[in-house]
């Protein structure tokens, strides 16, 4: 049986997948691996649907964050996010040592 939290997680996961698709198209377009319409379509999708859906689902199902103590919040959420941030930073560093930066506006 589906719960409200399960549907909220699905909504957040779909929203994150849309944002990932946008970033993939953003990097593939300058290499001519994705057509321009695809990058524009995913940009519109990410900005108009995915981001608002993610924030709405986060607000609706994040009420426990307001009632828990700071230590419980730190143990349950912040430590996990800190580990993910460090892991993602290492992956990003390794990838951009191998893959050239294709976006003209800024450096990685």
UniProtKB/TrEMBL annotation:
Tell me where the transmembrane regions lie.
Answer: 44-66, 78-103
The record, for InterPro entries, names: Acyl_transf_3_dom
Give one Pfam family. Answer: Acyl_transf_3
Protein name stated in the entry? Acyltransferase family protein
Report the residue ranges that make up the Acyltransferase domain in this protein.
9-101
> What are this entry's molecular-function GO terms?
acyltransferase activity
Keywords from the UniProt entry: Acyltransferase, Membrane, Transferase, Transmembrane, Transmembrane helix
Organism expressing this protein natively: Kineococcus mangrovi
